Amino acid sequence: MDWLLAGGLFAEALLLLSLLVSIARPGLRLWPPPQGSTRAFAWMWGLTVAACAAGLLLAVLDYGGWVLDHPGWILAGAAVLALGAGLADWGVRTLGRRTSSGRGGVFSTAGPYRWTRNPQYLGDIMMALGVVLVADSWRVAAVAAGGALCLLLAPLAEERWLIERYGEAYDRYRRRVPRLLGLPR
């Protein structure tokens, strides 16, 4: 199981590095993938799938070996997981799969985007927390923490691109609606 943990963390480290490059050097941006860059798209999504697969496999293989051995944690985790999946799915359905995968599209403030600029990332973080609570595994918690860090940085990599692409409309929206949590202004 340790090789699976190492693989998941390595994929997340590469994702983290890619996001930091995208934030610090927009000319070398990997996320969101530059228009027509299938390599950047494949790189970012390949690492994401590898990290998620490692976390899910660890949830099965390392189930129940940590500190959350009460059935209430499983119920709480399942509820958080379901709410997160619902929020992320609502975000994808609102924007469409193409836009949600970083390949451009229309600017929308409908659906969950009325309350959070990043409902998909928020939902993904909730799902990761839910899996940790259900799996009761420190290895899953480690991969989930790395994933959450990537999910918290991804909006920072996107914001300059969104301002360039959608201009004043996005800038007004950004000032009014919180990045993840909070009350709209």
Q: What report would you give on this structure?
A:
The protein is mostly helical and 185 residues long. It has one domain (2-176): Four Helix Bundle (Hemerythrin (Met), subunit A) (Up-down Bundle). The protein is 71% helix and 0% strand. It has 6 helices and no strands. 34% of the residues are buried.
SSE topology:
Elements: H1 2-24, H2 38-61, H3 71-95, H4 97-100, H5 119-135, H6 138-176
Helix pairs in contact: 1-2, 1-6, 2-5, 2-6, 3-5, 5-6
Short description:
The chain has 185 residues and is mainly α.
By CATH reckoning, the class would read Mainly Alpha
Helix-strand sequence: HHHHHH
Judging from the principal axes of the Cα atoms, what is the shape? Answer: globular
What structural class do the secondary elements suggest? mainly alpha
Major sheet details = none
Number of helices: 6
Beta strands, count: 0
CATH topology: Four Helix Bundle (Hemerythrin (Met), subunit A)
- The CATH architecture category equals Up-down Bundle
Poorly predicted runs of 5 or more residues: none
Strand composition percent: under 5%
The CA-CA distance between the termini, in Å, is 46 Å
Over the alpha carbons, how many angstroms does the gyration radius reach?
17 Å
